[in-house]
Amino acid sequence: xxIVSIVKGDNPEVMVEKALDLLGGLNNYVEQGQKVxxxxxxxxxxxxxPGSFTNPRVLTSVMRLLRKMDAAVSVGEADSCMYTADVMLxxxxxxxxxxxxxxxxxxxxxxxxxxxDVPNGYxxxxxxVNRAVAEADAIISMPVMKTHMCTAVTLGMKxxxxxxxxxxxSRYHPKLxxxxxxxxxxxxxxLTIIDGxxxxxxxxxxxxxxxxxxxxxxxxxxxxxDACAAxxxxxxxxxIDHLRLASEKGxxxxxxxxxxxxxxxxxxxxxxxxxxxxxRRERIIxxxxxxxGYVVMHRHYEEAVNSWKKSQQKS
Length: 315
Hints:
The protein has helices spanning 12-22, 56-67, 85-91, 94-100, 131-134, 156-159, 176-186, 222-232, 241-248, 266-269, 281-286, 290-314, and strands at 3-8, 35-40, 72-77, 104-107, 113-117, 126-130, 138-142, 144-148, 152-154, 191-201, 209-219, 260-263. It has 315 residues and is an alpha/beta fold. Strands 1, 2, 3, 4, 7, 8, 9, 10, 11 and 12 form a ten-stranded mixed beta sheet that branches. The longest helix is centred in the last third of the chain and has 25 residues, at 290-314. The protein is globular, with a radius of gyration of 18 Å. The model has no long low-confidence stretch (mean pLDDT 92).
């Protein structure tokens, strides 16, 4: 049965440990000495803007628990249309967190690649992925809770899209929700730990507004965990295409009545998010061209960065 834990508080270290304890403990999902790959939100974040990338304190909390199990931990991101992973891993604090906790950092766009077959894929029959991901005994998906103008939300499933090594991923956007399901069906996270300490509502994933929530949501099934997180955000899970497609494929239930929620009830912490507006016309047109899509995505991100910097100068 899908189990999801919801913890509210103000201390990420305490919240993460409690969320995992409610799931039966980390040792139910990771064995002593195993290889663990962590996938946070990185390239989708604006450096310094809370709610746009995974909180380093939440990431640190998980790494410390894994260290106690002598796990060989790696964390990574692939290049994106916005910026290279090398830049963003540094700017969002991931490099520092990894160094402090004995974890390896991987730019998933480089290094040895492994071909992964997709079972009954909607779009993909196979894809290449960095060996750090392919050879992990356990994958932990660690997104931040955000709205997204292309996929409604960006949670545990959507963050896994970032393991694809191509920088110009906009070529995948015409069938983005289907491809997210294909990736997750081939490389399924063992655990999903959603950073809801500060989320983002509105024009996510870059231009939205930070939203303090004080939550950590964790689960043993990425589809069901995302469904509960969406419900907390005030969004019907069945309205989110990749969740519906994943459920139809049998990857996990999105029926809240079939999910065991431990800790805080969904209704007790529910905070409807202002949703992202529909895609702008130029972004829709950009799907027709890989190079144009790259330019549009990068420009959109630069606008978000500049807007955030100006807001901080005024304050």
